[in-house]
Amino acid sequence: MTTLDRRQPEGIFSANDTVTHSVIDDLVTANRILAGEGVLDAFGHISVRDPHDPGAFFLSRSRSPELVEAGDIMRFDLEGNVLEGEGKPYLERVLHAAILAARPDVNSVVHHHAPSVLPFAVADVALRPVFHLGAVMGARVPVWDSQDSFDDTSLLVSDLDMARSLAQTLGTEPSCLLARHGAVCAGPDIRQTVFIAICMRDNAEVLTNALRLGTPSYLTEGEIRQAAAKHDGGAPVARAWEYWARRCS
Ligand SMILES: [Zn+2]
User: Fold this and answer.
1) How far is it, in rounded angstroms, from Cα 131 to Cα 142?
2) How far apart are CA 116 and CA 135, in angstroms?
3) Marked catalytic residue, from 92, 205, 221, 242
4) Structural domains in the chain?
5) Cβ distance 95 to 166 under 8 Å?
6) Which of 64, 72, 75 is nearest to 20 (CA)?
């Protein structure tokens, strides 16, 4: 793993803007954590809303997450148009744009193809919480199928119509599966979003293993509600973030 590059990007924000500095710093760390934890690999990406402008968000240029540095971060509007920054953007930046536009409560989005999650985007088996931390991904993860409205495509969410359709299926949930493709997770801040993505990875792995052994015991609605509330930000998320950040540094 390469060392974190703490250089500040040029042209994205003024040098004395400590709020944006800290958001970009977390965005770089989030990229490294999700790569280090195997949620992202060569592909996938994470975004964060501009703390000074709810109509804009930050996302790396098209680069593998483990390699992302502060200087790679670009700024986009909520239709995916480049506002600031250099380089070739991710094709699927519109997915972030559409979800952030549809969800004022969401300030960070991750799109991933975590290997443990992918089978649930392929098989006719619902992804539901089977251990307490899995509760943060939602009671029953909805599945968006591009075939329903767009017929045969490359499966990449590469235009706004597809992105808005995905955002609609996500609804008010914290996560959604993309049939034959991957998943998205959406949270109120970047650390919670990373938390959701990693817990989703773990829940998918536990559920697959449990299905091999027999009939899984799923969390009840009440357990999901209480366990999700217990892990909605605060000390547990701060503790996990510190642990994951150390592992990837
Ligand atoms: Zn993808």
Assistant:
1) 18
2) 17
3) 92
4) 18-248 (3.40.225.10)
5) yes
6) 75
Ligand 1 centroid, distance to 15 Cα (angstroms)? 33
Q: What is the CB-side half-sphere exposure of residue 221 using CA atoms within 13 A? A: 0
Known catalytic residue at 10: no
Query: How many A from CA of 220 to the centre of ligand 1?
Result: 31
What's the 160 CA to ligand 1 centre distance in angstroms?
15
pLDDT tens for the chain, 249 residues long, are: 444 444 444 556 555 788 999 999 999 999 999 999 999 999 999 999 999 999 999 999 999 999 999 999 999 999 999 999 999 999 999 999 999 999 999 999 999 999 999 999 999 999 999 999 999 999 999 999 999 999 999 999 999 999 999 999 999 999 999 999 999 999 999 999 999 999 999 999 999 999 999 999 999 999 999 999 988 888 999 999 999 999 998
Q: Tell me the CA–centroid distance for residue 143 and ligand 1, in Å.
A: 14
Residues 122, 98: Cα–Cα separation, whole Å: 24
Q: How far away, in angstroms, is 112 Cα from ligand 1 center?
A: 6
- Cβ–Cβ < 8 Å for 6, 27: no
